[in-house]
Task: inverse folding
């Protein structure tokens, strides 16, 4: 036997531990079952899927429209593109 250390989100681990307990398994046993299934089937035993490009564009547009609606409702002043780019640069530079 060997040990393995992984880093996961604290809330995810708590939720996983609760579910494993409800299944009557330790988190180690559950992860071992997953690893055995991957090795036996030579694949991840569930579908891993990214959103389509169209879905991502649609989600981005919807987020933009929500922000725009929120800005209009708050009477926020329009910003010229140069100010927007300055703010983006400041965030990227950690300012």
Result:
């Amino acid at each position: 036997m060997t040990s393995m250390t992984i880093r996961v989100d604290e809330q995810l681990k708590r939720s996983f531990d609760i579910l494993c307990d409800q299944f009557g398994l330790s988190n180690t046993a559950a992860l071992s079952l997953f690893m055995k299934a991957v090795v036996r089937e030579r694949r991840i035993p569930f579908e891993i899927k990214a959103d389509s490009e169209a879905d991502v564009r649609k989600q981005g547009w919807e987020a933009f429209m929500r922000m725009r609606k929120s800005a209009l409702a708050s009477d926020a002043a329009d910003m010229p593109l140069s100010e927007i780019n300055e703010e983006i640069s400041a965030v990227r530079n950690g300012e």
Notes: Residues 35 and 44 are 9 Å apart (CA to CA). The chain has two domains: 1-47, 53-92.
